[in-house]
Structure formats: structure tokens, C-alpha cells
Amino acid sequence: MLGLGAAGVAVGASVQDRVARTLAPVGPIGDVLPAAGGFRYYSVTAGVKRHSVETHHVAVTGLVGKPRSFSMADLAGFPQMTLDKDFQCVTGWRVPDVRWVGVALPDLLDAVGVSAQAKAVRFTSFDGVYTESLTLEQARRRDVLVATQMDGKPVTHDHGGPTRLYVAPMYGYKSLKWLGGIELTDKVKPGYWEDLGYDVDAWVGRSNGRDDEPT
Which PANTHER family does this entry report, sorted A to Z (predicted)? Predict the structure, then answer.
């Protein structure tokens, strides 16, 4: 889910206007789920092509020792991390206690061998437009997942499946939908919404991400 707005992140009204203009031609691809605080569905592009579980891959490239493309079966072969965490949209709405299951991003990075020159990780969506980035330190947190399940079911297309990024300690716009590529880079490359003025670091409710970090 892509959450956008001003609550909790200091951005100006002009940024909000640009976001509204960006989303307006696309519109929601769904609606609020029938529960208070339910998800809202948005996309920055229209008509995102669906990927099947049988053919979908996540490519890990860039400053790594062994570039590799991981199928859903490959991802299922990793130790599975389960997180019961809220999903917090920067506009202020929140979905509490969502159960996320997937591969902890550090495990995936270890599998390809991160180069000493790598300082950041760039994520690309198979919608062809949406991108996001984390520092390497942030990406090595164990509450950052390549999520394949949500609330006991495979991640649906509208929620960004078959695979999506879930960055538990940050606002929803960092949790990129329709994850198709992971690239190790030598510096942080601002993502789609950062180019519109949003914070590169989007910690929920605090100025750093060291509180409540799982071990």
C-alpha cells in the first residue's frame, strides 16, 4: 500500500499539491477495506501488469559478488521471518497488527555477497516507474522484508504482490509495491516520492530508527 501525505513528515503544501496532481489522473485502484483504518489502494501508474507466482522473479544486482534472480520458490527456501506490525501511512491512517511474512532483506543480501563499495540499496517496481532506496545500514535491519504473505495469504496484486518491500519502521511510501529489482549502489538514490519532496528517511514517529529494532 502506498500512503501519501503530510502527517508525521514535514513537507510543504506545494509538495502535497504535486502529489495530488500526480495521483489524480490515476485514481484509486480500489477503496477503503470494510473496516475502520483499512487499507487504501493507489498506484502511480495505470494498469500495472500482473505477475504470476509461477514466473515472477526478484533480481538482485549492482555491487554484489553473485548477481542473482530469485523465483518465488527460491524465496520460499529462505528462513521465513514473521512480523506483526502496523502499516502507517504518512497521511495519518494506520492499519494495526498486520501479519507480514517473507525473507528478511539481510538474508537475501548475504546470499549474493555485498561488495565493500556498496553503501545503499535501490528498489525498483515492475510498474516501470516507482523506485525507493535505503542506506545499507537500514536495509540490514531484520524488520525490513521482501514480503510474500500478508495476513495469512499471498500478497495480492493490489497490495503489491507477488512480492513487495515492507519497511516496518518507516512510513508506507518506503514499502515499495510490485518489487522486481534490488540494486546495491555506492550511494542513496532518492526514490519516486523523494523526488517530489518527501523525506528520504521516513521513520515513523521518531528521528532515528534505532528504537525497538528486533534482534
Answer: PROTEIN-METHIONINE-SULFOXIDE REDUCTASE (PTHR43032)
Asked if residue 11 lies in contact with residue 198, where contact means CB atoms within 8 angstroms, the answer is yes
Classified as helix, coil or strand, 139 is helix
User: Mind listing the domains of the chain with CATH numbers?
Assistant: 13-196 (3.90.420.10)
Instruction: Count how many residues are written for the chain.
Output: 215
User: Under a CB-based contact definition with an 8 Å cutoff, are residues 39 and 54 in contact?
Assistant: no
Q: What is the pLDDT of residues 15-39, one digit of tens each?
A: 444 444 444 333 333 333 333 347 7
DSSP 3-38: --SSTTS---HHHHHHHHHHHTTT-BSS---SSTT-
Alpha-carbon gap, residue 159 to 39, rounded angstroms: 9
Residues of the chain scoring pLDDT < 50: 1-37, 207-215
